[in-house]
Design a protein that fits this description.
This protein is α/β, with parallel strands linked by helices. The protein has twelve helices and 21 strands. Bound molecules: flavin-adenine dinucleotide (FAD). The site of flavin-adenine dinucleotide has 39 residues, from helix 1, strand 15 and strand 19.
């Protein structure tokens, strides 16, 4: 597929979207749905889907496992509205693929959270209880060890919980499918077009400035993933970390022996979790969200690909599935994660500009970005509806510390947490110091897991 041309010269559109990941592309999609005659321009620094949207684990999950946290922050009714909207997003992606003829390997399957060490047992209790208390017990419920192992028979699984709303996709196929449909609909896409500034334009509206030109519009959307740390008003609203995935050769015999034939995406209950799934051609994709933190806005290098994180993921894969010893890993990759201090994305409008943003998907953006795109389209259209009234829109901001404290403190806590969780998995008692340092985020009310 050839790249779309970069922006050149001074152009105009009704709406300008910056960032060609899922969030930006769904926003553009919803703008074409809700304002069919409007002109939409999308500016992408590289190629659409080049970022995490084209290379994630493909877990399209809802937010029922966040219901306790949502309730604590926003109250019961608002929490339920967000969780319901998130599972509608999972279904809507499937319906969109079907309706548009996009084969993104969308496969509905329940999402499992499992314990892989005694310290992880019951990590789901609060969310399971919240679902039951708010009248939705079937959304997220506990499974015994036998029930978990009937779905996937890893020797390290000790029990878990099942979230009925979920699916998997092939991430790049979804990204490229969206891109193709936007072009078909007349959205003007400019690739290899890094935007230097998106803000108010003299005389009204907004302007996106690039090295090659300017795009003026009535309203703008900033959907640039972890690069949002570059935007001054959002700098303290997220931390950028990294996540890595290894992909095995086809191992249908192993999947058969594990009884893992239902396509369930699975995560363990670590802070820096492992996430794993099967693919239609019988592989296992195994991810580990324990990669390094970015210092400030330095998002390249080992945030994109870190050999040590890949090696760790490969070791953890074999610990989880010893049957894979000796089987080949054919691909490995990584990418940045925009970690929100609340573990929940935040959607809003920049002060003093018609520029709307979504940040902080925290490694869980495949389905929520569909929802965010819908909200962002309504905000850009200056409409208030059931989506813009969701509690994820303009939540009370929670801030992370400034640099260098964020990186120094974050890396110390990451190292301590990794040591603690590795000891727990070995059945050992973690050192007092590691346990103490790993407990700091909870003490100060900041979420560091992904
Ligand atoms: C390895 C990995 C595995 C993951 N696994 C999962 C998973 O299984 N399930 C899940 O739900 N989530 C997962 N995630 C997270 C998920 O991929 C993201 O939350 C989601 O893709 C966010 O999409 P986005 O559009 O907001 O951001 P991005 O995909 O980051 O897109 C932002 C785009 O903006 C562009 N951009 C940045 N700056 C500029 C600029 N100045 N000008 C123009 N363009 C710019 C970038 O090039 C990029 O294309 C994973 C992420 C990684 C890295």
């Amino acid at each position: 597929m050839p790249a779309e041309p970069p922006l050149g010269g001074d152009l105009r559109a009704d709406f300008v979207v910056v960032g060609g990941g899922y969030t930006g592309m769904w926003t553009a999609w919803w703008l074409t749905e809700q304002a069919p005659g409007a002109s939409v321009a999308l500016l992408e620094a590289e190629r659409c889907g080049h970022g995490p949207s084209g290379r994630n684990g493909g877990f399209a999950t809802s937010l029922w496992d966040e219901l306790a946290a949502l309730r604590e922050r926003f109250g019961a009714d608002a929490a339920l509205a967000v969780a319901r909207a998130s599972s509608e997003a999972v279904d809507a992606i499937g319906a969109w693929c079907e309706g548009q003829g996009v084969d993104a390997w969308y496969r509905p399957a329940p999402h499992l959270v499992v314990s892989a060490a005694p310290a992880q047992d019951g990590a789901w209790d609060e969310a399971v209880r919240a679902c039951a208390e708010l009248g939705e017990p079937d959304r997220f419920r506990e499974l015994s060890a036998a029930e978990v192992r009937a779905r996937c028979d890893s020797p390290v699984f000790r029990g878990g919980a099942i979230m009925t709303s979920g699916a998997t996709v092939q991430p790049a196929r979804l990204g490229l499918g969206l891109r193709a449909k936007l072009i078909e609909r007349g959205v003007r896409i400019f690739e290899r077009t890094p935007v230097r500034r998106l803000g108010p334009a003299p005389g009204g509206g907004v302007v996106a400035e690039t090295d090659g030109g300017r795009m003026r519009a009535g309203a703008g959307v900033m959907a640039i993933g972890g690069s949002a740390v570059l935007a001054r008003p959002l700098r303290r609203r997220l931390t950028v970390a990294s996540s890595h995935i290894v992909l095995t050769e086809p191992v249908p015999d192993v999947l058969e022996s594990l009884g893992w034939t239902g396509g369930e995406p699975i995560v363990d209950a670590r802070t820096f979790l492992h996430y794993f799934r099967t693919t239609p051609d019988g592989r296992i994709a195994f991810g580990w969200a324990g990669g390094r933190l970015a210092y400030g806005a330095r998002l390249r290098g080992r945030i994109e690909l870190d050999r040590r994180a890949v090696e760790q993921a490969a070791r953890d894969l074999v610990r989880t599935f010893p049957q894979l010893r000796g089987r080949r890993i054919t691909h490995a990759w990584g990418g940045p994660i925009d970690v929100s201090p609340t573990h929940l994305p935040a959607i809003g409008t920049l002060p003093g500009a018609q520029v709307h943003y979504a940040v902080g998907f925290t490694g869980n953006g495949v389905a929520p970005s569909h929802l965010a795109g819908r909200v962002l389209a309504s905000l850009a259209l200056d409409r208030r509806d059931e989506h813009t009234r969701l509690a994820l829109v303009e939540p009370d901001p929670v801030r992370v510390p400034p640099e260098p404290l964020r990186w120094v403190g974050g890396e110390l806590i990451r190292a301590a947490t990794l040591r603690k969780e590795a000891a727990e998995e070995r059945g050992e008692r973690p050192s007092r110091l590691a346990a103490l340092v790993a407990g700091v985020p909870r003490m100060i009310g900041v979420h560091i897991g992904r």
